[in-house]
């Protein structure tokens, strides 16, 4: 019998970012050990971490991305933090230089 206040042993987290045009330059996210991972030179206009199992002792996850779109002042970037299959945070930015950060506390 499971109680409502039983804590999960882990969470399934996925990070996603996409831009309508331009290029992603930097991505920073909380990895499966609760540490920060940084990626640069990202190919394409979208990136996904895939599903990452984060232990429950990690209380907060963060995700950030930077992108540029010199040719399109109306370019849009969308960033999502998905936990256990449900979008928990979604942020957008528009312009030639886009920067977003978001956190989610379990």
Could you explain how this protein is built, in words?
The protein is mainly beta and 106 residues long. Helix content is 0%, strand content 61%. The protein contains no helices and nine strands. Strands 1, 4, 5, 7 and 8 form a five-stranded antiparallel sheet that branches. A four-stranded antiparallel sheet has the order 3-2-6-9, with no helix packed on it. A hairpin with a 5-residue loop joins strand 2 (23-30) and strand 3 (36-40). It is elongated, with a radius of gyration of 15 Å.
Rg: 15 Å
What proportion strand? over 45%
Structural shape: elongated
Q: Runs with pLDDT <50, length 5+?
A: none
Instruction: Count the E strands.
Output: 9
H/E element sequence? EEEEEEEEE
| N-to-C span | 23 Å
Mean pLDDT: 92
